[in-house]
Description:
Blueprint lengths: L1 E6 L11 H4 L4 H14 L3 E6 L3 H14 L2 E5 L8 H9 L4 E5 L21 E4 L4 H18 L1
Parallel strand pairs: 1-2, 1-3, 3-4, 4-5
Helix pairs in contact: 2-5, 3-4
The chain binds 1,3,4-trihydroxy-5-OXO-cyclohexanecarboxylic acid.
Amino acid sequence: LKILILNGPNLNLLGTREPAVYGHQTLQDVESLCREEAARHGLQVEFVQSNHEGDLIDALHRARLEADGVVFNPGAYTHTSIALADAVSGIERPVIEVHLSNVHAREAFRHHSFISPVAASVIIGAGVNGYRLGISQLAHLLESAAS
Ligand code: DQA
């Protein structure tokens, strides 16, 4: 089984971007921990980051053909993108929505997610460990689906 870890806009700046909110670990650190966690569950990983909405949509469409599930941090597009929500619905693969920060403790415009209603699970405010939790949850869902 193979999973896609997909990160949206500005997450390439992780580690240097608002470290008080997002911590000091870089996206490369996140990639390493994701590969480690996926290996624990016997899952192959593709790791993609893009700052472009259309590229994220294309990556989701590819996941429909090439992956069994997705762990997705859509960044600020979470709060704006009906197109990404439609892509998540359209691919018929479980998508776990992850946010590093507790978006509900932040500005009101971060309280609404277009992705949550179409996500299989949502993990918020667990920092980079949220990716680990997301992968573990995805492994659980894929195992249940297989049995
Ligand atoms: C984020 C939360 C979003 O509101 C923000 O725009 C991000 C990161 C998070 O991981 O906490 O870019 O998705």
